[in-house]
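Researcher: We plan to redesign the surface later, but first we want a full-length starting point. Tokens attached.
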């Protein structure tokens, strides 16, 4: 799992020391604290209900359809009218899909992008395109700059003088789904949290068995601070705070776990 994260981040030019690791799924908050520590990540975020986090997101996320067309064309020879026509064709396909879903026109929105590469290059990068919504929207020089910036971030180098070409055009059509109201903020904590139990836990070969506090998630309030080692239990998950970590409950009831300060 650590190597998969490195593949998606470090190998793409991202410094994960400034990233948070979102721990969801029943076992997510249990594994994530070990992973974040080994990867040197900033913190672990345990949402209010990790075990049903994905299901909740599925119910609340906007509908999404995609369309794509191959279009290998040098950027220098792309005409605004031609590009507009091709984008409009993709958008028309997406409108049909959203109509079948019963999405009202006011609840639809769209995004466009192009797969681009340096002429003669094999690998390509997806670069967002501006919405064709009026005069002056099409700026090939800016698009080339955006591509070279993305190239530098992904591969560690770029040459602004190398000509660029389109490979594919992409479009996404979204239908807004009504969202439930946000959960009310939890009450501010008064004093330190009270453990519900204490348990001997074997963390690793270095730490061995340690007497650790056990908290119930429902007993925790905004501002409560937890010092590892400890465990937070709830119906859909178990959250672990390692001996060299600390945690705080934020105003939304989310638990944020970080390495202990030196």
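Model: Full-length starting sequence:
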């Amino acid at each position: 799992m650590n190597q998969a994260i490195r593949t998606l981040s470090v190998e793409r030019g991202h410094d994960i020391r400034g990233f948070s690791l979102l721990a969801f799924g029943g076992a997510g908050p249990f594994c994530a604290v070990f992973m974040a520590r080994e990867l040197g990540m900033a913190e672990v975020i345990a949402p209010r209900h990790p075990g049903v986090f994905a299901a909740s997101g599925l119910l609340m996320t906007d509908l999404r359809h995609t369309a794509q067309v191959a279009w290998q064309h040098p950027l220098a020879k792309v005409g605004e009218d031609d590009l507009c026509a091709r984008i409009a064709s993709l958008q028309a396909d997406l409108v049909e899909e959203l109509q079948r879903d019963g999405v009202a026109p006011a609840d639809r929105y769209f995004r466009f992008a192009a797969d681009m590469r340096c002429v003669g290059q094999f690998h390509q990068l997806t670069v967002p395109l501006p919405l064709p919504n009026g005069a002056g929207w099409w700026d090939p020089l800016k698009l080339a700059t955006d591509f070279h910036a993305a190239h530098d971030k992904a591969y560690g180098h770029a040459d602004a003088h190398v000509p660029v070409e389109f490979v594919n055009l992409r479009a996404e059509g979204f239908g807004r789904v009504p969202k439930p109201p946000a959960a009310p903020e939890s009450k501010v904590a008064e004093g330190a949290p009270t453990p519900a139990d204490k348990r001997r836990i074997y963390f690793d070969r270095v730490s061995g068995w340690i007497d650790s506090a056990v908290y119930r998630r429902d007993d925790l309030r905004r501002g409560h601070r937890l010092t590892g080692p400890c465990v937070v239990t709830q119906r859909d998950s178990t959250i672990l705070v390692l001996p060299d970590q600390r945690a705080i409950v934020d105003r939304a009831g989310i638990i944020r776990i970080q390495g202990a300060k030196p």
